[in-house]
Amino acid sequence: xxxxxxxxxxxxxxxxxxxxxxxxxxxxxxxxxxxxxxxxxxxxxxxxxxxxxxxxxxxxxxxxxxxxxxxxxxxxxxxxxxxxx
Length: 85
What we know:
This protein is α+β, with helices and mostly antiparallel strands. It has two helices and four strands, in the order H-E-E-H-E-E.
């Protein structure tokens, strides 16, 4: 996901959070920058979203008021959802 956000040349600061619990894991990456995704960035997000969906998870991207983007990805724990098959 860092490569998705790095596509925005105006990014100066990135924060990463990883949460793991019994239900699975969530990775959230936030970056400052120009704001909403460009066409190229949107294409990269679509590819990543499809990959997470194949594993039973999901991916979302949200513009941050004032500029920037937050991308969150979640995968279920082993044995739950499609990831456990």
